[in-house]
Amino acid sequence: MSPEAHSAPRSLAEALRARDDASLAALLRSRPDLITPVPTDLTQLATRAGTRASVLRALERLDRFALQTAEALAVAPDPASYDTLLGLMAGDAGDETVAGALPRAVACLREQALVWGGDDRLRLVRTARELLAPSPQHPSPTGLGPTVQEATSGMSPGRIQEIVTTAGLPSTHDSVSAVTALTALFTHRKKMAKLLAGAPEAAREVLTRLVWGPPYGQVTADPAAHLRWLLDRGLLLPTTPGTVVLPREVALHLREGRAHRTPEPLPPAVTPAATHSPQVVDATAAGQAYTALATVEELLKDWDEGGPAVLRAGGLSVRDLKRTAVALDVSEPVAAFWVELAYAAGLIASDGEADERYAATPAYDEWLEQPPAERWARLAQAWLAATRTPGLVGGRDAKDRTLSALGPGLDRSAAPEVRHRVLSLLTALPQGAAPDAASVLARLRWERPLRGAQRDGDDLRSRLARWALSEAELLGVTGRGALSAHGRALLGAPAAATPAAGSGSAAAGSAEPTGPGDKLPVHHHRAADRLVPLAAAEQAVATAAAARLLAPLLPEPLDHVLLQADLTAVAPGPLRRPLADMLGVLADVESKGGATVYRFTPASVRRALDAGRTAADLHAFLAEHSRTPVPQPLAYLIDDVARRHGHLRVGAASAYVRCDDDTLLNEILADRRAAALRLRRLAPTVLAAQTDPATLLEGLRAMGYAPAAESAEGDVLITRAHAHRTPPRTAPEPVPDGPPPPDATLLSAAIRAIRAGDLAATTPRKPVGEPLAGGELPRTSSAETLATMQAAVLTGDSVWIGYVNADGAASQRVIAPVRVEGGFVTAYDHTADEVRTFPLHRITGVAELADD
């Protein structure tokens, strides 16, 4: 036996044992479920790596070509050589592109511990083979059927001999050799070509229909002559009554050796749909970022005194979402996005009261005090990490219940990864290039074929990608579809991108990741770091950089408006907060856009007077903040409303109206519109009503009067909006997609612990009494244990012990005793990689290690 064969791994555990620490770290980083909890040794790591749930999760993170490679190995002999695999992937004629990409795919499968063994003996992990190998219940994506051996397993020996003879082969003494001879015939290209040359034309048409799958067909009890010809020679084999299958070896001959009809070694390129100037893109994105801030502020201002009620099942009602959409002047899906974004950023939450309502949180007031760019960065960072998916609002859950905004059931753990990946693909395009959405979806389906199995683009991953593109535009991360400079910084990407060859195609040696988890083999890993989601600390730095780039692009707040004679005011840009707040009370917003138009009405002026302002205050305010003279109609409007404001006084009796002008009270009594208020005169200057003061105020205002409310002492009540805030709330935590990737510190500690545990489990030992069963701890008497320990202290040798801790958990360890005294042994513990003290009474036994 050659040295190479002797050193070849015999199991996945041995293959892992031969890896260096960097390779083990790559495995644990790409499959974090293997490290939760930390395995005790490499044998346990290999066992865990072969479990169905872990293998399925690893397969879901393979790109299409790596998955096609695994599928080819599942239909290849076990083990298979690299040349055999290459033949299945590239076919008899060969394919240079496939041949060039196959080493990367095999290296990826090895890194993921889905394949082990040398190039002469490639083995697919048994669980992966069971998941990918073809069966009647689970057809293979390759379209191949069972082998001749599998298809003839239940066939009578006589029938097998008939098939062998009819196929032109000599008869054999047993079924095994007959099946072997038939398999050899079907895998011999020249002999198979000669056999098929004599097939009827109709028989060849049947084979053509079955060759790319599905390989099963139906036949009658008395098949036609061309079908009988195929059945007699084993080119079709019966499986169940009335059903036949095309053997795998025959299909591979007809396919010229290819396992897949269309191998896809390279990812589809992300192509630009349009190209704009980078300056135009940044300016457009900045304008949309400002609109995003204004929209969120308007939403929270609308909910300032207490927002919509919380449904019993949680979330907003359909009616409240429609009302919010009207208030924001957007569609309902867009309104759901803004509501969910504010919730993800921790700006709104439920107040937790008995009559539960949504309201702004204390964090909203802190957010308002921040500079605009920092406020946007907080929203963008929350969006990037959120697992809640506004696009699902209005859909149905598994129990056919409507999914509501802010309600349960909107978390999709894949959302952050898809969102980040979509934006990362945009970084590979030239600056200013907007991608073709279809090419982005095709690329994502290539990178995660199992998670996006539907090719019609309606799978969850494709929908998440489409939502990511539209939401990035709404938020101002992109402008005109292209990634902005501050959007690029938000991802931690370089400030200026170098256009990749083919605008994102994965040429050989490209730094762009094309493998599982967006990672290349270890030697390419650093080049791909910018395309993987950042850690929390790195993301905070990237977000701050994005804010710095955005800040100069946002418009500077203004301290003035332009008053016009038609009782409107035009704000040519964003206003400073005190001015905007006061103008929001004094006037109504008529239109939005690049410039906001406010309209002054009697009701809006009365609103300002109700808030405690006087006519003189309003005149002074307008004169101070207008770049144009105060128009005479506006001055007359303010004076007219102020003259009538408070002339009528409403207080609580049930309610009453008093006025020094009895003529005005007579006018009210005579007005038909006052009938619903049920007024009657108590005195020449006082009317009583059978309604509450608030209803009376609204009724008189609807009639065109300007009454003022008064207190029990007769003072005018000033009505200001009282902000309603929830108790301190934390933003919703994203729902992770499995265990989080371990950091470098955890990886280093885990690998050290696994190595130490493996050393304790695999170090050769001298026999102790009777031979021990696998995993059984050594057993020695107390005297023997003490004597062996003392001898090891003198010689400096390491020993193997069985140890039971205070919790009753048993383990085996390799230790180097340093001192034995007082019923304790102090030793260097190779398993824990530190010096520890062990009570002698907890040591079950001790054995010397073998000399080699």
From TrEMBL:
<feature type="region of interest" description="Disordered">
    <location>
        <begin position="501"/>
        <end position="522"/>
    </location>
</feature>
<dbReference type="Pfam" id="PF13625">
    <property type="entry name" value="Helicase_C_3"/>
</dbReference>
<protein>
    <submittedName>
        <fullName>Helicase C-terminal domain-containing protein</fullName>
    </submittedName>
</protein>
<dbReference type="InterPro" id="IPR026881">
    <property type="entry name" value="WYL_dom"/>
</dbReference>
<dbReference type="GO" id="GO:0004386">
    <property type="term" value="F:helicase activity"/>
</dbReference>
<feature type="domain" description="Helicase XPB/Ssl2 N-terminal">
    <location>
        <begin position="561"/>
        <end position="683"/>
    </location>
</feature>
<feature type="compositionally biased region" description="Low complexity">
    <location>
        <begin position="501"/>
        <end position="517"/>
    </location>
</feature>
<feature type="region of interest" description="Disordered">
    <location>
        <begin position="133"/>
        <end position="154"/>
    </location>
</feature>
<dbReference type="InterPro" id="IPR032830">
    <property type="entry name" value="XPB/Ssl2_N"/>
</dbReference>
<keyword id="KW-0347">Helicase</keyword>
<dbReference type="Pfam" id="PF13280">
    <property type="entry name" value="WYL"/>
</dbReference>
<keyword id="KW-0547">Nucleotide-binding</keyword>
<keyword id="KW-0067">ATP-binding</keyword>
<keyword id="KW-0378">Hydrolase</keyword>
<feature type="domain" description="WYL">
    <location>
        <begin position="784"/>
        <end position="846"/>
    </location>
</feature>
